[in-house]
Amino acid sequence: MTSSLRFRAAVVSIVLLAAFLGIWHLATRPTAAATNMSPEYAKLMGLTATQGKSAMPGPLDVGAKLWEHLRQPFYDNGPNDKGLGIQLGYSIARVGLGYFLAVMVAIPLGFLIGMSPLISKALDPFIQVLKPISPLAWMPLALYTIKDSSISAIFVIFICSVWPMLLNTAFGVASVRKEWINVARTLEVGTVRRAFTVILPAAAPTILTGMRISIGIAWLVIVAAEMLVGGTGIGYFVWNEWNNLSITNVIIAILMIGIVGMLLDQILARFTRMVTFPE
Amino acid sequence: MTDKFISIEGIARRYPEAGGDQTTIFEDLWLSMSRGEFGCVIGHSGCGKTTVLNILAGLDQPSEGAVIVDGQAIEGTSLDRAVIFQSHALLPWRTVLGNVAYAVTSKWRNWDRAKVKAHAQKFIDLVGLTGSEHKRPSELSGGMKQRVGIARALSITPKIMLMDEPFSALDALTRGTLQDEVRRICLETGQTAFMITHDVDEAIYLADKIFLMTNGPGAVLAEIVENPLPKDRGRIDLHRHPLYYALRNHIVDFLVSRSKTFATTVTDHDPRNVPVVRIGKPELVVAAESEHSTQASWPGVSRPSTSS
Protein backbone atom coordinates (compact mmCIF):
# COMPACT_ATOMS: atom_id res chain seq x y z
CA MET A 1 0.00 0.00 0.00
CA THR A 2 2.03 2.91 -1.26
CA SER A 3 0.10 6.09 -1.74
CA SER A 4 1.59 8.95 -3.67
CA LEU A 5 4.08 11.28 -2.05
CA ARG A 6 1.66 14.15 -2.55
CA PHE A 7 -1.06 12.41 -0.63
CA ARG A 8 1.22 11.42 2.24
CA ALA A 9 2.61 14.95 2.45
CA ALA A 10 -0.96 16.32 2.60
CA VAL A 11 -1.78 13.94 5.45
CA VAL A 12 1.29 15.05 7.42
CA SER A 13 0.39 18.71 6.78
CA ILE A 14 -3.13 18.20 8.09
CA VAL A 15 -1.85 16.36 11.15
CA LEU A 16 0.60 19.18 11.88
CA LEU A 17 -2.14 21.78 11.48
CA ALA A 18 -4.48 19.84 13.77
CA ALA A 19 -1.71 19.47 16.37
CA PHE A 20 -0.97 23.19 16.21
CA LEU A 21 -4.63 24.14 16.58
CA GLY A 22 -5.04 21.62 19.39
CA ILE A 23 -2.09 22.94 21.36
CA TRP A 24 -3.25 26.49 20.73
CA HIS A 25 -6.72 25.61 21.94
CA LEU A 26 -5.45 23.89 25.09
CA ALA A 27 -3.03 26.66 25.89
CA THR A 28 -5.75 29.32 25.75
CA ARG A 29 -8.33 27.43 27.82
CA PRO A 30 -10.05 29.48 30.52
CA THR A 31 -8.45 29.07 33.93
CA ALA A 32 -10.27 29.17 37.23
CA ALA A 33 -11.81 32.54 37.87
CA ALA A 34 -10.07 34.61 40.44
CA THR A 35 -11.89 34.78 43.70
CA ASN A 36 -11.75 37.42 46.34
CA MET A 37 -11.51 40.24 43.89
CA SER A 38 -13.15 43.49 44.54
CA PRO A 39 -16.04 43.89 42.07
CA GLU A 40 -14.72 47.19 40.83
CA TYR A 41 -11.33 45.76 40.03
CA ALA A 42 -13.01 42.78 38.36
CA LYS A 43 -15.02 45.09 36.15
CA LEU A 44 -11.84 46.81 35.11
CA MET A 45 -10.12 43.54 34.29
CA GLY A 46 -13.02 42.21 32.22
CA LEU A 47 -13.63 38.56 31.40
CA THR A 48 -10.00 37.58 32.00
CA ALA A 49 -10.41 38.13 35.67
CA THR A 50 -14.07 37.31 36.25
CA GLN A 51 -14.36 34.10 34.22
CA GLY A 52 -10.72 33.12 33.92
CA LYS A 53 -10.75 33.67 30.15
CA SER A 54 -7.35 33.66 28.52
CA ALA A 55 -6.01 37.03 27.31
CA MET A 56 -4.85 35.34 24.16
CA PRO A 57 -7.71 34.42 21.81
CA GLY A 58 -8.07 30.72 21.06
CA PRO A 59 -8.54 29.20 17.59
CA LEU A 60 -12.31 29.15 17.99
CA ASP A 61 -12.46 32.88 18.72
CA VAL A 62 -10.27 33.61 15.73
CA GLY A 63 -12.30 31.27 13.54
CA ALA A 64 -15.57 32.93 14.52
CA LYS A 65 -14.18 36.41 13.91
CA LEU A 66 -12.67 35.32 10.59
CA TRP A 67 -16.04 34.00 9.48
CA GLU A 68 -17.55 37.35 10.37
CA HIS A 69 -14.91 39.14 8.27
CA LEU A 70 -15.27 36.80 5.34
CA ARG A 71 -19.05 37.21 5.24
CA GLN A 72 -18.67 40.97 5.00
CA PRO A 73 -15.30 41.77 3.50
CA PHE A 74 -16.21 45.11 1.93
CA TYR A 75 -18.18 47.05 4.53
CA ASP A 76 -17.20 50.63 5.20
CA ASN A 77 -18.22 52.24 8.49
CA GLY A 78 -15.94 55.22 8.39
CA PRO A 79 -12.17 55.68 8.50
CA ASN A 80 -11.44 53.33 11.40
CA ASP A 81 -13.81 50.50 10.53
CA LYS A 82 -13.49 49.09 7.04
CA GLY A 83 -13.82 45.51 5.83
CA LEU A 84 -10.76 43.32 5.49
CA GLY A 85 -11.28 43.13 1.72
CA ILE A 86 -11.14 46.91 1.39
CA GLN A 87 -7.96 47.13 3.47
CA LEU A 88 -6.26 44.37 1.51
CA GLY A 89 -7.45 46.00 -1.72
CA TYR A 90 -5.71 49.27 -0.78
CA SER A 91 -2.50 47.45 0.03
CA ILE A 92 -2.55 45.40 -3.16
CA ALA A 93 -3.26 48.51 -5.23
CA ARG A 94 -0.29 50.35 -3.68
CA VAL A 95 2.00 47.38 -4.18
CA GLY A 96 0.76 46.93 -7.72
CA LEU A 97 1.33 50.55 -8.68
CA GLY A 98 4.79 50.85 -7.07
CA TYR A 99 5.79 47.49 -8.48
CA PHE A 100 4.57 48.37 -11.97
CA LEU A 101 6.61 51.58 -11.93
CA ALA A 102 9.64 49.60 -10.75
CA VAL A 103 9.22 47.13 -13.64
CA MET A 104 9.02 50.02 -16.09
CA VAL A 105 12.31 51.42 -14.81
CA ALA A 106 14.26 48.31 -13.80
CA ILE A 107 13.87 46.17 -16.91
CA PRO A 108 14.94 48.70 -19.56
CA LEU A 109 17.72 49.99 -17.30
CA GLY A 110 18.79 46.44 -16.50
CA PHE A 111 18.95 45.70 -20.23
CA LEU A 112 21.17 48.72 -20.73
CA ILE A 113 23.46 47.73 -17.85
CA GLY A 114 23.61 44.15 -19.06
CA MET A 115 24.43 45.07 -22.64
CA SER A 116 26.89 47.87 -22.01
CA PRO A 117 29.94 47.20 -19.84
CA LEU A 118 30.55 50.95 -19.70
CA ILE A 119 27.12 51.76 -18.22
CA SER A 120 27.45 48.75 -15.94
CA LYS A 121 30.74 49.96 -14.47
CA ALA A 122 29.55 53.58 -14.31
CA LEU A 123 26.32 52.80 -12.44
CA ASP A 124 27.77 50.12 -10.20
CA PRO A 125 28.84 52.39 -7.29
CA PHE A 126 25.40 54.05 -7.19
CA ILE A 127 23.61 50.72 -7.16
CA GLN A 128 25.93 49.33 -4.51
CA VAL A 129 25.21 52.28 -2.21
CA LEU A 130 21.46 52.57 -2.88
CA LYS A 131 20.64 48.87 -2.75
CA PRO A 132 21.26 48.18 0.97
CA ILE A 133 19.21 51.19 2.14
CA SER A 134 16.13 50.09 4.02
CA PRO A 135 13.15 51.26 1.99
CA LEU A 136 11.55 52.80 5.07
CA ALA A 137 14.56 55.09 5.48
CA TRP A 138 13.30 56.85 2.34
CA MET A 139 9.94 57.52 3.95
CA PRO A 140 10.65 60.89 5.63
CA LEU A 141 12.35 62.18 2.52
CA ALA A 142 9.43 60.98 0.41
CA LEU A 143 6.89 62.57 2.75
CA TYR A 144 8.81 65.83 2.72
CA THR A 145 9.22 66.04 -1.05
CA ILE A 146 6.01 64.41 -2.26
CA LYS A 147 3.83 65.80 0.54
CA ASP A 148 1.32 62.98 0.10
CA SER A 149 1.42 59.97 2.39
CA SER A 150 -0.28 57.63 -0.06
CA ILE A 151 2.08 58.44 -2.93
CA SER A 152 4.99 58.21 -0.49
CA ALA A 153 4.00 54.64 0.31
CA ILE A 154 3.93 53.86 -3.42
CA PHE A 155 7.37 55.42 -3.77
CA VAL A 156 8.69 53.23 -0.97
CA ILE A 157 7.32 50.15 -2.74
CA PHE A 158 8.94 51.34 -5.96
CA ILE A 159 12.33 51.86 -4.37
CA CYS A 160 12.35 48.51 -2.59
CA SER A 161 11.25 46.43 -5.58
CA VAL A 162 13.48 48.09 -8.16
CA TRP A 163 16.82 46.58 -7.02
CA PRO A 164 16.29 42.83 -7.32
CA MET A 165 14.69 43.33 -10.75
CA LEU A 166 17.44 45.66 -11.91
CA LEU A 167 20.27 43.39 -10.80
CA ASN A 168 18.65 40.21 -12.09
CA THR A 169 17.84 41.76 -15.45
CA ALA A 170 21.39 43.06 -15.82
CA PHE A 171 22.81 39.69 -14.81
CA GLY A 172 20.47 37.74 -17.07
CA VAL A 173 21.20 39.96 -20.05
CA ALA A 174 24.96 39.95 -19.48
CA SER A 175 25.14 36.18 -19.17
CA VAL A 176 23.23 35.22 -22.30
CA ARG A 177 25.25 32.45 -23.90
CA LYS A 178 27.85 33.69 -26.35
CA GLU A 179 26.87 31.05 -28.89
CA TRP A 180 23.29 32.36 -29.11
CA ILE A 181 24.62 35.85 -29.65
CA ASN A 182 26.95 34.45 -32.29
CA VAL A 183 24.03 32.79 -34.05
CA ALA A 184 22.29 36.16 -34.23
CA ARG A 185 25.50 37.79 -35.42
CA THR A 186 26.11 35.30 -38.23
CA LEU A 187 22.49 35.79 -39.31
CA GLU A 188 23.07 39.56 -39.43
CA VAL A 189 20.27 40.20 -36.95
CA GLY A 190 20.09 43.88 -35.97
CA THR A 191 20.57 45.08 -32.39
CA VAL A 192 16.90 45.71 -31.66
CA ARG A 193 15.72 42.44 -33.16
CA ARG A 194 18.54 40.62 -31.36
CA ALA A 195 17.45 42.16 -28.05
CA PHE A 196 13.88 40.93 -28.51
CA THR A 197 14.43 37.57 -30.22
CA VAL A 198 17.57 36.29 -28.48
CA ILE A 199 18.48 38.25 -25.36
CA LEU A 200 14.97 38.74 -23.95
CA PRO A 201 13.88 35.10 -24.22
CA ALA A 202 17.25 33.89 -22.97
CA ALA A 203 17.26 36.25 -19.99
CA ALA A 204 13.52 35.97 -19.25
CA PRO A 205 13.79 33.27 -16.56
CA THR A 206 16.39 35.31 -14.66
CA ILE A 207 14.36 38.51 -15.07
CA LEU A 208 11.21 36.80 -13.81
CA THR A 209 13.11 35.42 -10.82
CA GLY A 210 14.11 38.98 -9.97
CA MET A 211 10.49 40.08 -10.34
CA ARG A 212 9.42 37.30 -8.01
CA ILE A 213 11.92 38.35 -5.36
CA SER A 214 10.73 41.95 -5.77
CA ILE A 215 7.04 41.22 -5.28
CA GLY A 216 7.91 39.36 -2.08
CA ILE A 217 9.92 42.28 -0.74
CA ALA A 218 7.23 44.77 -1.80
CA TRP A 219 4.60 42.84 0.12
CA LEU A 220 6.84 42.73 3.19
CA VAL A 221 7.47 46.46 3.03
CA ILE A 222 3.88 47.60 2.40
CA VAL A 223 2.77 46.46 5.87
CA ALA A 224 5.48 48.49 7.57
CA ALA A 225 4.92 51.45 5.26
CA GLU A 226 1.18 51.52 5.94
CA MET A 227 1.79 51.34 9.69
CA LEU A 228 3.77 54.55 9.25
CA VAL A 229 1.54 56.46 6.83
CA GLY A 230 -1.77 55.22 8.24
CA GLY A 231 -5.25 55.78 6.85
CA THR A 232 -5.93 52.63 4.89
CA GLY A 233 -4.37 49.32 4.04
CA ILE A 234 -3.70 46.06 5.81
CA GLY A 235 -0.65 47.47 7.63
CA TYR A 236 -2.77 50.26 9.06
CA PHE A 237 -5.42 47.70 9.96
CA VAL A 238 -2.90 45.70 12.02
CA TRP A 239 -1.76 48.81 13.86
CA ASN A 240 -5.29 50.05 14.41
CA GLU A 241 -6.43 46.71 15.83
CA TRP A 242 -3.38 46.67 18.09
CA ASN A 243 -4.46 50.05 19.41
CA ASN A 244 -7.94 48.57 19.91
CA LEU A 245 -6.26 45.65 21.72
CA SER A 246 -8.10 43.27 19.40
CA ILE A 247 -5.55 40.48 19.25
CA THR A 248 -8.09 38.35 17.34
CA ASN A 249 -8.12 40.82 14.48
CA VAL A 250 -4.33 41.12 14.55
CA ILE A 251 -4.03 37.35 14.16
CA ILE A 252 -6.54 37.38 11.30
CA ALA A 253 -4.63 40.17 9.61
CA ILE A 254 -1.35 38.22 9.95
CA LEU A 255 -3.01 35.20 8.36
CA MET A 256 -4.38 37.32 5.51
CA ILE A 257 -1.02 38.97 4.85
CA GLY A 258 0.51 35.52 4.57
CA ILE A 259 -2.16 34.25 2.18
CA VAL A 260 -2.03 37.27 -0.12
CA GLY A 261 1.80 37.14 -0.13
CA MET A 262 1.66 33.50 -1.09
CA LEU A 263 -0.80 34.21 -3.92
CA LEU A 264 1.37 37.02 -5.31
CA ASP A 265 4.39 34.73 -5.22
CA GLN A 266 2.47 31.92 -6.93
CA ILE A 267 1.35 34.23 -9.74
CA LEU A 268 4.97 35.23 -10.44
CA ALA A 269 6.10 31.61 -10.12
CA ARG A 270 3.57 30.69 -12.81
CA PHE A 271 4.89 33.42 -15.12
CA THR A 272 8.43 32.22 -14.47
CA ARG A 273 7.48 28.69 -15.47
CA MET A 274 5.89 30.03 -18.65
CA VAL A 275 9.14 31.61 -19.86
CA THR A 276 11.50 28.92 -18.62
CA PHE A 277 12.87 26.71 -21.35
CA PRO A 278 14.39 23.28 -20.86
CA GLU A 279 17.85 22.79 -22.26
CA MET B 1 44.49 27.40 -57.79
CA THR B 2 43.38 29.93 -60.33
CA ASP B 3 39.97 30.72 -58.92
CA LYS B 4 40.42 31.95 -55.38
CA PHE B 5 36.90 31.98 -54.02
CA ILE B 6 38.13 32.22 -50.46
CA SER B 7 41.49 33.84 -49.93
CA ILE B 8 42.99 34.27 -46.50
CA GLU B 9 45.82 36.72 -46.92
CA GLY B 10 48.50 36.90 -44.31
CA ILE B 11 46.28 36.92 -41.25
CA ALA B 12 47.70 36.86 -37.73
CA ARG B 13 46.17 36.67 -34.29
CA ARG B 14 47.98 37.99 -31.27
CA TYR B 15 46.87 38.25 -27.70
CA PRO B 16 48.38 40.70 -25.25
CA GLU B 17 50.22 39.04 -22.43
CA ALA B 18 51.03 40.19 -18.93
CA GLY B 19 54.14 42.32 -19.05
CA GLY B 20 53.38 44.03 -22.34
CA ASP B 21 54.44 41.14 -24.56
CA GLN B 22 52.20 39.51 -27.08
CA THR B 23 51.49 35.88 -27.69
CA THR B 24 51.23 35.05 -31.33
CA ILE B 25 48.80 32.24 -31.91
CA PHE B 26 49.55 32.21 -35.63
CA GLU B 27 50.85 34.73 -38.11
CA ASP B 28 51.32 35.23 -41.81
CA LEU B 29 48.73 32.62 -42.67
CA TRP B 30 47.84 32.33 -46.34
CA LEU B 31 45.21 29.97 -47.57
CA SER B 32 42.90 29.82 -50.52
CA MET B 33 40.06 27.66 -51.76
CA SER B 34 38.13 27.58 -54.98
CA ARG B 35 34.38 27.48 -55.42
CA GLY B 36 32.73 24.20 -54.57
CA GLU B 37 35.72 22.85 -52.70
CA PHE B 38 35.58 21.14 -49.35
CA GLY B 39 38.50 22.10 -47.13
CA CYS B 40 39.38 20.58 -43.79
CA VAL B 41 41.82 22.02 -41.27
CA ILE B 42 43.58 19.56 -39.01
CA GLY B 43 45.83 20.51 -36.16
CA HIS B 44 46.27 20.09 -32.46
CA SER B 45 44.34 22.12 -29.91
CA GLY B 46 45.74 25.60 -29.46
CA CYS B 47 46.97 26.05 -33.02
CA GLY B 48 44.28 28.61 -33.72
CA LYS B 49 42.03 26.58 -35.99
CA THR B 50 38.88 27.88 -34.36
CA THR B 51 40.22 31.43 -34.51
CA VAL B 52 40.82 31.05 -38.24
CA LEU B 53 37.25 29.86 -38.68
CA ASN B 54 35.86 32.65 -36.50
CA ILE B 55 37.80 35.20 -38.53
CA LEU B 56 36.42 33.66 -41.70
CA ALA B 57 32.92 33.84 -40.19
CA GLY B 58 33.47 37.46 -39.16
CA LEU B 59 32.96 36.68 -35.47
CA ASP B 60 36.59 37.56 -34.76
CA GLN B 61 38.99 40.04 -36.30
CA PRO B 62 42.54 39.22 -37.35
CA SER B 63 45.31 41.27 -35.76
CA GLU B 64 46.83 41.59 -39.24
CA GLY B 65 45.90 40.63 -42.76
CA ALA B 66 42.61 40.25 -44.52
CA VAL B 67 40.17 37.68 -45.77
CA ILE B 68 38.72 37.98 -49.24
CA VAL B 69 35.61 36.05 -50.19
CA ASP B 70 34.28 36.16 -53.72
CA GLY B 71 36.45 39.17 -54.57
CA GLN B 72 35.51 41.23 -51.52
CA ALA B 73 37.30 41.75 -48.25
CA ILE B 74 35.01 40.59 -45.48
CA GLU B 75 33.87 42.92 -42.77
CA GLY B 76 32.04 41.33 -39.92
CA THR B 77 29.54 38.55 -40.21
CA SER B 78 27.46 37.87 -43.27
CA LEU B 79 24.51 35.78 -44.32
CA ASP B 80 26.73 34.53 -47.14
CA ARG B 81 28.81 32.61 -44.65
CA ALA B 82 26.82 30.21 -42.52
CA VAL B 83 28.32 28.68 -39.41
CA ILE B 84 27.57 25.27 -37.98
CA PHE B 85 28.61 25.45 -34.36
CA GLN B 86 30.23 22.67 -32.42
CA SER B 87 27.63 22.99 -29.68
CA HIS B 88 24.81 23.26 -32.27
CA ALA B 89 23.76 26.57 -30.61
CA LEU B 90 20.03 26.11 -31.16
CA LEU B 91 17.72 28.55 -29.42
CA PRO B 92 16.12 26.28 -26.81
CA TRP B 93 12.87 28.28 -26.56
CA ARG B 94 12.13 27.78 -30.26
CA THR B 95 10.98 24.62 -31.97
CA VAL B 96 12.94 22.95 -34.76
CA LEU B 97 10.86 24.82 -37.29
CA GLY B 98 11.21 28.01 -35.26
CA ASN B 99 14.99 27.75 -35.24
CA VAL B 100 15.23 27.26 -38.98
CA ALA B 101 12.55 29.89 -39.64
CA TYR B 102 14.51 32.37 -37.53
CA ALA B 103 17.41 32.07 -39.97
CA VAL B 104 15.07 32.26 -42.97
CA THR B 105 13.35 35.44 -41.74
CA SER B 106 16.76 36.93 -40.99
CA LYS B 107 17.74 36.54 -44.62
CA TRP B 108 14.43 37.35 -46.30
CA ARG B 109 12.82 39.89 -44.01
CA ASN B 110 9.73 40.59 -46.07
CA TRP B 111 8.66 37.02 -46.72
CA ASP B 112 5.26 36.13 -45.39
CA ARG B 113 4.76 33.45 -42.80
CA ALA B 114 3.69 30.71 -45.20
CA LYS B 115 6.64 31.26 -47.49
CA VAL B 116 9.10 31.18 -44.59
CA LYS B 117 7.52 28.03 -43.29
CA ALA B 118 7.63 26.27 -46.63
CA HIS B 119 11.26 27.25 -47.15
CA ALA B 120 12.28 26.12 -43.66
CA GLN B 121 10.35 22.88 -44.09
CA LYS B 122 12.30 22.12 -47.26
CA PHE B 123 15.58 22.16 -45.35
CA ILE B 124 14.18 20.25 -42.40
CA ASP B 125 13.17 17.55 -44.88
CA LEU B 126 16.61 17.70 -46.46
CA VAL B 127 18.35 16.77 -43.21
CA GLY B 128 15.79 14.04 -42.51
CA LEU B 129 13.91 15.63 -39.65
CA THR B 130 10.44 15.49 -41.20
CA GLY B 131 7.94 14.94 -38.41
CA SER B 132 10.03 16.60 -35.69
CA GLU B 133 9.29 20.19 -36.74
CA HIS B 134 7.41 21.07 -33.59
CA LYS B 135 9.78 19.51 -31.10
CA ARG B 136 11.98 21.67 -28.96
CA PRO B 137 15.75 21.17 -28.95
CA SER B 138 15.60 19.61 -25.47
CA GLU B 139 13.49 16.79 -26.89
CA LEU B 140 16.05 15.93 -29.57
CA SER B 141 19.12 13.72 -29.46
CA GLY B 142 22.57 15.22 -30.04
CA GLY B 143 22.62 14.06 -33.64
CA MET B 144 19.17 15.50 -34.34
CA LYS B 145 20.16 18.82 -32.81
CA GLN B 146 23.16 19.01 -35.08
CA ARG B 147 20.90 18.19 -38.03
CA VAL B 148 18.82 21.21 -37.11
CA GLY B 149 22.05 23.22 -36.98
CA ILE B 150 22.87 22.03 -40.49
CA ALA B 151 19.36 22.77 -41.74
CA ARG B 152 19.56 26.26 -40.25
CA ALA B 153 22.93 26.91 -41.92
CA LEU B 154 21.76 25.59 -45.28
CA SER B 155 18.40 27.36 -45.22
CA ILE B 156 19.97 30.75 -45.84
CA THR B 157 21.62 29.32 -48.99
CA PRO B 158 25.08 30.56 -48.04
CA LYS B 159 28.05 30.84 -50.35
CA ILE B 160 30.22 29.12 -47.77
CA MET B 161 29.52 26.74 -44.95
CA LEU B 162 31.85 27.02 -41.99
CA MET B 163 31.93 24.11 -39.59
CA ASP B 164 33.76 24.11 -36.27
CA GLU B 165 34.16 20.47 -35.29
CA PRO B 166 30.45 19.96 -35.87
CA PHE B 167 30.42 16.26 -35.08
CA SER B 168 32.97 16.01 -32.30
CA ALA B 169 30.34 15.84 -29.57
CA LEU B 170 28.46 12.98 -31.22
CA ASP B 171 28.84 9.23 -30.93
CA ALA B 172 30.66 7.42 -33.74
CA LEU B 173 27.55 5.99 -35.35
CA THR B 174 25.67 9.29 -35.48
CA ARG B 175 28.80 11.05 -36.62
CA GLY B 176 29.09 8.67 -39.57
CA THR B 177 25.51 9.24 -40.66
CA LEU B 178 25.83 12.98 -40.41
CA GLN B 179 29.09 12.94 -42.36
CA ASP B 180 27.25 11.09 -45.10
CA GLU B 181 24.49 13.70 -45.04
CA VAL B 182 26.89 16.62 -45.17
CA ARG B 183 28.84 15.03 -48.00
CA ARG B 184 25.67 14.33 -49.98
CA ILE B 185 24.32 17.83 -49.46
CA CYS B 186 27.63 19.49 -50.36
CA LEU B 187 27.98 17.41 -53.53
CA GLU B 188 24.36 18.02 -54.54
CA THR B 189 24.44 21.75 -53.97
CA GLY B 190 28.07 22.38 -54.93
CA GLN B 191 28.54 24.08 -51.59
CA THR B 192 31.92 25.49 -50.65
CA ALA B 193 32.74 24.24 -47.19
CA PHE B 194 35.43 24.88 -44.64
CA MET B 195 35.62 22.56 -41.71
CA ILE B 196 37.73 22.14 -38.63
CA THR B 197 38.24 18.67 -37.31
CA HIS B 198 40.39 16.50 -35.09
CA ASP B 199 39.32 13.38 -36.87
CA VAL B 200 41.67 12.21 -39.63
CA ASP B 201 39.13 9.84 -41.15
CA GLU B 202 36.50 12.53 -41.23
CA ALA B 203 38.89 14.78 -43.12
CA ILE B 204 39.78 12.03 -45.61
CA TYR B 205 36.13 11.18 -46.21
CA LEU B 206 34.86 14.72 -46.62
CA ALA B 207 37.65 16.96 -47.80
CA ASP B 208 39.06 17.77 -51.21
CA LYS B 209 41.92 19.59 -49.57
CA ILE B 210 43.33 19.01 -46.11
CA PHE B 211 45.18 21.86 -44.44
CA LEU B 212 47.73 20.75 -41.88
CA MET B 213 48.59 23.23 -39.16
CA THR B 214 51.54 22.97 -36.82
CA ASN B 215 51.29 23.41 -33.08
CA GLY B 216 50.75 26.82 -31.57
CA PRO B 217 51.76 29.29 -30.39
CA GLY B 218 53.36 30.51 -33.57
CA ALA B 219 51.40 28.00 -35.60
CA VAL B 220 51.80 27.91 -39.38
CA LEU B 221 50.00 26.21 -42.20
CA ALA B 222 52.57 23.52 -42.93
CA GLU B 223 51.19 21.94 -46.04
CA ILE B 224 48.10 21.35 -48.11
CA VAL B 225 47.31 17.72 -48.85
CA GLU B 226 45.18 17.07 -51.88
CA ASN B 227 42.84 14.19 -51.41
CA PRO B 228 43.65 11.59 -54.07
CA LEU B 229 40.48 9.58 -53.47
CA PRO B 230 37.81 9.79 -56.15
CA LYS B 231 35.01 12.33 -55.75
CA ASP B 232 32.40 9.58 -55.62
CA ARG B 233 34.05 7.81 -52.73
CA GLY B 234 31.82 5.82 -50.42
CA ARG B 235 32.18 5.18 -46.75
CA ILE B 236 32.06 1.40 -47.21
CA ASP B 237 35.03 0.94 -49.52
CA LEU B 238 36.98 4.04 -48.60
CA HIS B 239 39.66 2.16 -46.75
CA ARG B 240 40.16 -0.25 -49.66
CA HIS B 241 41.40 2.45 -51.96
CA PRO B 242 45.12 1.90 -52.70
CA LEU B 243 46.05 5.40 -51.62
CA TYR B 244 43.94 5.50 -48.48
CA TYR B 245 46.58 4.32 -46.05
CA ALA B 246 49.36 6.36 -47.62
CA LEU B 247 47.20 9.43 -47.17
CA ARG B 248 46.11 8.50 -43.69
CA ASN B 249 49.65 7.67 -42.56
CA HIS B 250 50.91 10.93 -43.95
CA ILE B 251 48.39 12.93 -41.93
CA VAL B 252 48.84 10.88 -38.78
CA ASP B 253 52.63 11.19 -39.04
CA PHE B 254 52.22 14.91 -39.31
CA LEU B 255 50.00 15.10 -36.26
CA VAL B 256 52.14 12.78 -34.17
CA SER B 257 55.59 14.13 -34.86
CA ARG B 258 56.02 16.71 -37.58
CA SER B 259 53.49 19.16 -36.18
CA LYS B 260 55.77 19.60 -33.16
CA THR B 261 59.13 19.66 -34.91
CA PHE B 262 58.09 21.58 -38.02
CA ALA B 263 59.26 24.96 -36.76
CA THR B 264 62.76 23.71 -35.99
CA THR B 265 63.33 21.33 -38.89
CA VAL B 266 61.90 23.37 -41.72
CA THR B 267 63.65 26.70 -41.70
CA ASP B 268 62.78 28.02 -45.14
CA HIS B 269 59.00 27.61 -44.96
CA ASP B 270 57.31 30.21 -47.13
CA PRO B 271 53.85 30.83 -45.78
CA ARG B 272 52.74 32.38 -49.07
CA ASN B 273 53.66 29.26 -51.03
CA VAL B 274 52.61 26.43 -48.84
CA PRO B 275 53.65 23.16 -50.49
CA VAL B 276 50.84 21.13 -51.94
CA VAL B 277 51.25 17.43 -51.36
CA ARG B 278 49.72 14.89 -53.70
CA ILE B 279 49.86 11.38 -52.54
CA GLY B 280 50.64 8.95 -55.36
CA LYS B 281 51.39 5.32 -55.61
CA PRO B 282 53.66 3.78 -54.46
CA GLU B 283 55.39 6.79 -53.00
CA LEU B 284 54.70 10.44 -52.53
CA VAL B 285 54.81 12.78 -55.45
CA VAL B 286 55.08 16.37 -54.48
CA ALA B 287 53.43 18.87 -56.73
CA ALA B 288 55.98 21.11 -58.33
CA GLU B 289 54.05 24.20 -57.49
CA SER B 290 56.40 25.49 -54.87
CA GLU B 291 60.13 25.81 -55.05
CA HIS B 292 60.35 24.63 -51.47
CA SER B 293 58.25 21.62 -52.09
CA THR B 294 61.07 19.09 -51.73
CA GLN B 295 61.79 20.22 -48.21
CA ALA B 296 58.21 19.86 -47.21
CA SER B 297 57.55 16.48 -48.66
CA TRP B 298 57.03 13.37 -46.67
CA PRO B 299 60.12 12.90 -44.52
CA GLY B 300 59.89 9.16 -44.79
CA VAL B 301 60.59 9.44 -48.49
CA SER B 302 62.68 12.45 -49.20
CA ARG B 303 64.55 12.85 -45.95
CA PRO B 304 64.98 9.45 -44.40
CA SER B 305 67.43 10.85 -41.89
CA THR B 306 64.80 12.88 -40.09
CA SER B 307 62.30 10.10 -39.75
CA SER B 308 62.34 8.31 -36.51
UniProtKB/TrEMBL annotation, chain A:
Query: Where exactly are the transmembrane stretches of this chain?
Result: 97-119, 152-176, 217-239, 245-264
Oxidoreductase as a keyword of this entry, yes or no, is no
ABC transmembrane type-1 domain location is 88-268
Gene Ontology biological process: alkanesulfonate transmembrane transport; monoatomic ion transport
UniProt main location, coarse = membrane
| Compartments, as annotated in UniProt | Cell inner membrane; Cell membrane
UniProt key word Transport: yes
One Pfam entry for this protein is BPD_transp_1
Q: Name one GO molecular function term.
A: nitrate transmembrane transporter activity
Alphabetical list of SUPFAM superfamilies matching this protein? MetI-like (SSF161098)
Q: Which domain of life is it from?
A: Bacteria
Instruction: Give the bilayer topology.
Output: Multi-pass membrane protein
Q: Which GO cellular component does the record give, naming just one? A: plasma membrane
What does the UniProt keyword field contain? Answer: Cell inner membrane, Cell membrane, Ion transport, Membrane, Transmembrane, Transmembrane helix, Transport
Q: Which family does it belong to?
A: Belongs to the binding-protein-dependent transport system permease family.
Summarizing the function annotation, the protein's role is: Probably part of an ABC transporter complex. Probably responsible for the translocation of the substrate across the membrane.
Q: Which NCBIfam families match?
A: ntrB
For this entry, the protein name equals Nitrate ABC transporter permease
List the top taxonomic levels of the source: Bacteria, Pseudomonadati, Pseudomonadota, Alphaproteobacteria, Hyphomicrobiales
Automatic annotation (TrEMBL), chain B:
Q: Name one GO molecular function term.
A: ATP hydrolysis activity
Give the protein's function.
Involved in beta-(1-->2)glucan export. Transmembrane domains (TMD) form a pore in the inner membrane and the ATP-binding domain (NBD) is responsible for energy generation.
- Coiled coil, from the record: none
Provide this UniProt record's keywords sorted from A to Z: ATP-binding, Nucleotide-binding, Transport
The family classification in the record reads:
Belongs to the ABC transporter superfamily.
| PROSITE patterns associated with the record | ABC_TRANSPORTER_1, ABC_TRANSPORTER_2
This protein is called Nitrate/sulfonate/bicarbonate ABC transporter ATP-binding protein
